[in-house]
């Protein structure tokens, strides 16, 4: 995208945000200001990949130069082979000098796996609320806890502006292992292809299905043998950890839906979380001491930790089956996803159920688990 079109899109989204502010309460006004200001701050730090690579060489940072060159290859592959948008996204780079670009807040009731939702005029209703400063996210989460909700703050390495802006590569994810870097770029570009208002599970499951299939193509076509082997090990651990989380989520959901009284549910909840910690400790031993997911346990465990994971998995088998049904033709696949996305919610979900049942322990973790200790989703 050229800068003129970029400015027009930026102006459009800012006007929309301004109209939203005119009818919003004080809390929403503050939230929009930090959202718009935070994103513009990210964009202001971005430079072209040519400039960033030249700067890395000038400062003798061969590692950064290599990662940016790899990211450019992945980005070109995304449009050429996966038919993802061919625009300016991920063709610029910004070093934010922090570990995550945003921190998202997820919340649930004490005895429920249902994620709280927030509704906004531009993107509709979503099951998380993102902040560009960790302190702001923690402050908001503390308020939710005072209201009786359980809240989880997750560091997010990347998000999508749905094509309104040319999202840059960031230091928060450019150093990920090769397969992970490809996964991140494919996932975020997928959000520019199809986005359905008020249906986070649809959007995230679709992008997750694209990333899973896309990274398999990348590993087969372009990755080195070392990168392929490294990713297989990384992905195997993630799948084991993800399976543990989804099993735990299902146990908690069954408990909360049971006829037990609240006291019994609280006791059972504590026992289930103790079991989760114990099983993770065993996994670490099997992994030879690998501790990559330790940070996921840094905050006291809540329902929100696990409900967020399930959001990204619900319809992955359906989208995977759809891609298979069109013989891996990405253009036909996206067209069919758009058609389903345009249906009424009940018809949309019925169509997905006909393709495949909701996901149980399949696919990959969300954006937050991409960088252990965070949740990604994703946006």
What can you tell me about this protein's structure?
It contains 14 helices and eight strands. Strand 4 (118-120) and strand 5 form a beta hairpin. It has 379 residues and is mainly alpha-helical. It has helices spanning 3-22, 26-44, 49-58, 62-82, 134-146, 178-193, 200-221, 225-257, 262-286, 303-311, 316-325, 330-341, 345-355, 367-370; strands at 47-48, 92-94, 102-108, 118-120, 124-126, 129-131, 150-156, 169-170. The strands form three sheets. It has a three-stranded mixed sheet with strand order 1-2-8. It has a three-stranded antiparallel sheet with strand order 6-3-7. It has a two-stranded antiparallel ribbon with strand order 4-5. It folds into two domains: 3-177, no CATH class; 226-370, no CATH class.
């Amino acid at each position: 995208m050229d800068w003129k079109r970029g400015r027009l899109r930026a102006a459009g989204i800012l006007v929309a945000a301004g109209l939203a502010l005119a009818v919003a309460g004080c809390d929403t006004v503050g939230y929009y200001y930090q959202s718009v200001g935070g994103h513009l701050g990210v964009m202001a730090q971005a430079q072209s990949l040519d400039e960033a690579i030249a700067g890395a060489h000038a400062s003798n940072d061969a590692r950064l130069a290599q990662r940016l060159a790899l990211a450019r290859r992945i980005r070109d592959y995304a449009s050429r082979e996966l038919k993802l948008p061919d625009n300016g996204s991920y063709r610029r780079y910004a070093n934010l000098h922090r570990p995550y670009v945003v921190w998202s807040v997820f919340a649930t009731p004490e005895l429920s796996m249902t994620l709280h939702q927030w509704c906004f005029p531009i993107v509709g209703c979503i099951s998380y609320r993102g902040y560009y400063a960790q302190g702001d996210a923690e402050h908001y989460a503390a308020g939710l806890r005072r209201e009786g909700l359980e809240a989880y703050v997750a560091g997010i390495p990347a998000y999508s502006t749905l094509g309104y802006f040319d999202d840059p590569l960031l230091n928060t994810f450019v150093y990920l292992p090769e397969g992970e870097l490809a996964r991140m770029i494919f996932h975020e570009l997928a959000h520019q292809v199809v986005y359905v208002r008020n249906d986070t599970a649809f959007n995230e499951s679709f992008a997750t299905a694209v990333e899973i299939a896309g990274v398999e193509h990348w590993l087969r076509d372009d990755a080195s043998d070392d990168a392929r082997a490294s990713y297989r090990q990384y992905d195997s651990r993630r799948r084991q950890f993800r399976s543990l989380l989804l099993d735990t989520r299902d146990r908690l959901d069954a408990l909360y839906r049971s006829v037990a009284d609240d006291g019994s549910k609280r006791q059972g909840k504590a026992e289930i979380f103790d079991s989760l910690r114990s099983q993770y400790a065993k996994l670490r031993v099997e992994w030879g001491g690998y501790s990559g997911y330790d940070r996921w346990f840094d905050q006291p465990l809540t329902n929100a930790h696990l409900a967020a994971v399930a959001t990204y998995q619900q319809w992955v088998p359906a989208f995977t089956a759809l891609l298979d049904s069109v013989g891996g033709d990405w253009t036909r696949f996206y067209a069919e996803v758009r058609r389903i996305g345009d249906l009424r919610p009940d018809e949309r979900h019925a169509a997905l159920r006909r393709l495949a049942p909701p996901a149980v322990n399949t696919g990959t973790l969300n954006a937050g688990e991409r960088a252990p200790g965070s949740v990604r989703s994703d946006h």
